Amino acid sequence: QSLPAACKQLQEELSKMSLSFSIVFRAFGVRLDTPSTTSWEEALEVRSRLLTAREQGVSAMQACLLEVLTAGRTNVHKKRSRSWSQAEAEDLIGHFVAKCEANKLRREALQQRKEALEERLQQRRAQKVLRNARKLECRQQRLQQRLQQRWQRVVGRAQRALLQEQKLDASSQQQAAAAVAEAARAK
């Protein structure tokens, strides 16, 4: 809004400066330069049409670009401005469409590579989780085995101690019985 107001105020100075305007535009991964004009209103109007066409898709962009390129130019510094023939404009648009298609294919290939990379990363993560789970399971099994072995050693020691105590008790009972028998004979 402020650009048109400023240009209207400075119209005389701008025409003395011999300014020309051109739209440098990117659509579907392709850079486009429109023919130049001395009318800023025309440049803004062309820009607006190109933006609208870009939002509508490649076919709308083709039609708008063909219209812009083949339109006669009256607001130029040169006495005779170069105008595009229908064939030249269609040839340029053909290049535009080919570049759009190439860019689309490149983006699709890049997207496929990204998806494949992401899938490989997910597989690696899943494999790492499985490896870690296996390691943890093996570690737990080794720990369980060690605990079992320790328990068996403790049980074995307790059994030997009990057996030895029983032997001592049996031998002390035999000695006590022998002593009682000896005492009974002595009487």
From TrEMBL:
Region entry Disordered, spans: 166-187
UniProt KW keywords: Coiled coil
- Statement: the UniProt record of this protein carries the keyword Coiled coil: yes
UniProt biased composition (Low complexity): 170-187
Question: Which regions form coiled coils?
Answer: 100-146
What's the protein called, per UniProt?
Uncharacterized protein
- In its UniProt entry, the species of origin is given as Polarella glacialis
